[in-house]
Specification:
With about 130 residues, this protein is an alpha+beta fold. It has two domains: about 1-45, no CATH class; about 55-115, CPE0013-like (CPE0013-like fold, Roll), CATH 3.10.530. It is about 15% helix and about 35% strand. It has helices spanning about 35-45, 80-85; strands at about 1-5, 15-20, 25-30, 50, 55-60, 65-70, 75, 90, 100, 110-115. The strands form three sheets. A five-stranded mixed sheet has the order 8-5-6-10-9. A hairpin with an 8-residue loop joins strand 1 (about 1-5) and strand 2 (about 15-20). The mean pLDDT is about 95. This is DUF1667 domain-containing protein. Pfam families: DUF1667. It comes from Fervidobacterium islandicum. InterPro entries: CPE0013-like_sf, DUF1667.
Length: about 130
Amino acid sequence: MKVEEMVCIMCPLGCRLTVRQEDNGEIIVSGNRCPRGIEYGKQEMIEPLRILTSSVLVLNGELPLVSVKTNKPIPRRLVMKIMDILKNTRVEAPVRVGDVIIKDILNTGADIVATRNVERAERSDAA
């Protein structure tokens, strides 16, 4: 049997959950005050998922970085691998909110999308 304690983040109540996975695979959640806590506890025990937020370098932009996020939750075990990919990712300005920066990252079904606009920098060619 495997037991984990966690705080549910599915609603503002922040219930303290106890999640037990029995030897037969059955998952039992206690401590929840709403039904969403049961699903959250089970998902956390099976495969924790997270929305990832970060930033990516912008070439020729008025800002050096653009904020990005996954458009759906990804397995927590892939967060560091995805961060390594984002660390080496560059995009060309202009960038618009919702632009897909990386499609289906690591075959998760999630896209990395821009969460703000970054305009192209004005060039000063005066010499």
